[in-house]
Amino acid sequence: MRAFLGLGSNLGDRAYYLEGAISALVSPKIEVVALSRIYETEPWGVMDQPLYWNQVIEVETTLEPLDLLHVCQEIEHRLGRERKVHWGPRTIDLDILLYENRVVKSEELRLPHPYLEERAFVITPLREIAPKLVLPSGKSITEVSGEGKVHPLTP
Predict the structure, then answer these.
(1) Rounded to an integer, what distance in angstroms lies between the CA atom of residue 84 and that of residue 57?
(2) What is the DSSP letter of 140?
(3) Mind listing the domains of the chain with CATH numbers?
(4) Partners of 31 in the beta sheet?
(5) What is the pTM of this model?
(6) Residue 81 catalytic?
(7) Which is more confidently placed, 82 or 129?
(8) In its keyword annotation, does this UniProt entry include ATP-binding (predicted)?
(9) How would you class 66 by CB atoms within 10 Å of its CB: exposed for 0-12, middle for 13-18, buried for 19 or more?
(10) Side-chain half-sphere of 119: how many Cα atoms within 13 Å?
(11) What residues form DSSP beta bridges with 55?
(12) Of these residues, 78, 83, 93, 102, which one is catalytic?
């Protein structure tokens, strides 16, 4: 199954945490297919915190969405993520943005990601690796820009 994951880090060695999360995802059940560039972005929600580095990756997985979520949460835990403040600073954040065309509405997981189309730090790198993607809303990825300033770190 095809899924897109959003990664973000704004504490410590941001490159280390992004690379570490991607490396930890690779397994017999998860193959990383595409990676966007890394973008420096403003925080979302709680504004008084360091700038983020964000990236979107595409994976092929045999895991069901909830199992993929649990893998992501375990990787966050191993990389020192502490959940103290909602939308607060973090070593690493791994969000499932899309999983095929599935819609999931449970206490533990919502798909597609509820803020997908609102956040430029997700839409911009997603557009980079999936320029022909049609979002669950029916809009083309090229029609949506999201909010916030997004600056690529690499050309």
Answers:
(1) 26
(2) B
(3) 2-152 (3.30.70.560)
(4) 60
(5) 0.94
(6) yes
(7) 129
(8) yes
(9) middle
(10) 24
(11) 7
(12) 93
- As given in the structure block, the two tokens for residue 115 are 């803020």
Average pLDDT over residues 30-38: 98
Q: Which amino acid belongs to residue 83?
A: R
Residue 48 annotated among the catalytic residues of the structure: no
Q: Which of 81, 83, 119, 127 is catalytic?
A: 81
The rounded Cα 54 to chain-centroid distance in angstroms is 7
Marked catalytic residue, from 2, 83, 90, 127 = 90
Residue 149 phi, psi dihedral angles, 5° rounding = -90, 135
Rounded distance between C-alpha atoms, residue 137 and residue 40, angstroms: 27
Question: What is the DSSP annotation of 36-57?
Answer: PPPEEE--SS--SSPPEEEEEE
What are 91-119's pLDDT values in tens digits?
A: 999 999 999 989 999 999 999 999 999 99
Of 2, 37, 95, 110, the active-site residue reads 95
pLDDT band at 44 (very low <50, low <70, confident <90, very high): confident
Question: How many C-beta atoms surround the C-beta of residue 41 within 10 A?
Answer: 22
